[in-house]
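Thanks for the sequence, V.! I ran DUF1643 domain-containing protein right away. Repeating your input here for the record:
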Amino acid sequence: MELVNLFAFRSESIKKLKERVRYENVEPVGDLNNQYLIKAIKDADKVMVAWGSNGGFQRRDKAVLSLLKDIPLFCFNKTSMGKPEYPKRIKGVELIEF
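Predicted structure:
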């Protein structure tokens, strides 16, 4: 299993990430993040997404879904808004189609 993030810039909370972007002009995606994502999924048997409700920051979830448009995606569960749920908020570990 290989784990990659939506954003190259990591933070302990989405609130802190947004603050850094707003006040410190941090670029959260980075120049190479998409290349790392594509490389990570290239030989994967299954691709799981799990960004929760905060993946929409700067429409990053849409950008990544566009990169992965021809790949079957799985998640543990979906939020009430249809987003792939972040694993720390769920109890089961069975993958479902996204």
